[in-house]
Amino acid sequence: MPALSDPAHAHGDLERTPLLPNTQRPAEESTMAPSSSTSDRADALPLIARSSFTGPAALLAQAGLLLATLTLWRVLYTHPAGLFTYHPGLQSIAVLGFLEGILLLQPQPPTAAHKRKGLQLHQVLQYSSLVAIVAGAAFIVYNKAIHGAKHIQTWHATFGLITLALIALQITFGALVVYSPLQRWVGDEGKAKALWKYHRMSGYATLLFLIATPLLALWSDWLVGNSSRLERGLIGAGLVLAGVGAFARVQTSKLGLKRS
Ligand code: HEM
């Protein structure tokens, strides 16, 4: 892991715009591409260990995710349901991926190199999870259509649609504030940086729906008919623990609500 004595550590700018390039520090921030200098590089695994697996709240979130995902996949494995299986299967991968992408960015990055690597990994996780959640939604809509079933009849379905809409907005907004060619749509780079805190706020609102939607699925006819009360309890408890762990790590100063 690179030395934690990077000058960016002490700089409050990391606090307010932890992911965005800082034009006043060209040596640190000139590109998001990997740099040839070792001191300017952060490796993915140590970063993930430090950001996503350190501290009680992170471990609680990880344990919850593991519990919910493994229990659901056990139910899916023991109750094959054709095309329908792809819906909960892909959505649980998406929830896992989106949450990992959030957990990764919650602690303050100690160096500018960590900041760049965190942004790279965040993008990989959030874009892959986007593909999974859109595919998972397509499977349930198609499966309902070929069986002549009505659409959007339950709270789970309604929350699912809201979740998909929030994720579309969240990813579009994130791209607008991060990618230089798109930043002119919001003004200039400075204005884009100032908007980052709103990406965080709406990200946490989206996360609430991302957890509430699979929780509501616990009352769906399919899950009630194909899983035990214990299994549904474990999936629900896992999702709640994951949410509690992630929200416990929110830093109000990074949301612009309080300066530390
Ligand atoms: C964040 C994750 C999820 C999202 C965004 C989501 C989204 C949706 C949407 C939009 C529908 C309605 C499709 C339509 O009416 O045409 C739906 C239906 C359904 N989903 Fe999910 N889903 C998620 C997770 C899950 C999970 C984990 C299960 C577990 C079994 C599940 C089970 C079902 C079932 C049984 C239906 C059909 C009944 C109903 O419409 O409520 N979903 N989902």
UniProtKB/TrEMBL annotation:
Membrane topology annotation: Multi-pass membrane protein
GO molecular function, one term: transmembrane monodehydroascorbate reductase activity
Keyword Heme among UniProt keywords: yes
Gene Ontology CC terms: membrane
Disordered as annotated region, ranges: 1-40
Cofactor(s) needed for function: heme b
Pfam families: Cytochrom_B561
Domain Cytochrome b561 as annotated: residue spans: 50-255
Compartments reported by the entry: Membrane
Keyword presence, rRNA-binding: no
SMART domains xref list: B561
Swiss-Prot/TrEMBL keywords: Electron transport, Heme, Iron, Membrane, Metal-binding, Transmembrane, Transmembrane helix, Transport
Transmembrane segments: 57-77, 124-142, 154-180, 201-220, 232-250
Official protein name in the record: Cytochrome b561 domain-containing protein
Organism: Rhodotorula diobovata
Source species taxonomy: Eukaryota, Fungi, Dikarya, Basidiomycota, Pucciniomycotina
